[in-house]
Amino acid sequence: MTKPEIKKIYREFCVPRHIIKHMEMVAYVCRILADKLIKKGKKIDKKVLVEAALLHDVLKISHEKYGKLGHEKEAEKVLKESGKVLLGKIVGKHGFSSINKLKTWEEKILYYADKRVHDKKIVSLKKRFEEGDKRYGKKTDKRSAGIKKKIFTLEKELESILGKSIYNF
User: Fold this and answer.
1) Torsion-angle region of residue 23: left (phi > 0), alpha (psi -120 to 50) or beta?
2) Nearest alpha carbon to residue 160 among 39, 38, 31, 40
């Protein structure tokens, strides 16, 4: 997709500026991680990954108008209906609970990058989870704790491949 096509989608769904800034920062993190992983021999469709990052929260505010599936699945549906099936699949798996469904590098990188960006700043997972607890209420159930643990495991997987701390990119 071209930048004008992405901007057209932003206008169509009245995406607020702060969400656009968040998606742009997530795309930035995705680019960096993709470049580093590609250098380590991983096969990643960077173009599709960045497009997915630039669209992942396109229905974050307006998803109520489009159904009750949650903004991730609604965006997936809209993208698939417009012929962007691969983009839709990647975007549809960035929700907090989707950690067990991640199969491709594009899905893993977008998921992880989104968890590392708060508004338009890159933060640690710990800080991002603290922010999420403030925004949505602290979840103390085993399921949420298990998801957070798996996200830290994903971070360790990335660090293992990169050969250094993910915080030094």
Assistant:
1) alpha
2) 40
Which amino acid does the sequence have at 124?
Answer: S
* pLDDT digits 0-9 by tens, 14-69: 999 999 999 999 999 999 999 999 999 999 999 999 999 999 999 888 655 555 66
d(CA 68, CA 49): 25
pLDDT digits (tens, 9 = 90+) for 109-132: 999 999 999 989 999 999 998 887
CATH number of residue 31's parent domain: 1.10.3210.10
Stated pTM of the model: 0.90
Summarised one tens digit per residue, pLDDT across range 39-49 is 999 999 999 99
Number of domains the chain contains: 1
Convert 118-138 to b/e letters by CB count within 10 Å (16 or more is b): beeebeebeebbeebeeeeee
Spatial distance between the Cα atoms of 113 and 169, rounded to a whole number of angstroms: 12
Q: What is the residue range of 128's domain?
A: 3-168
Contact 123, 131 (CB under 8 A): yes
CB 74 within 8 A of CB 66: yes
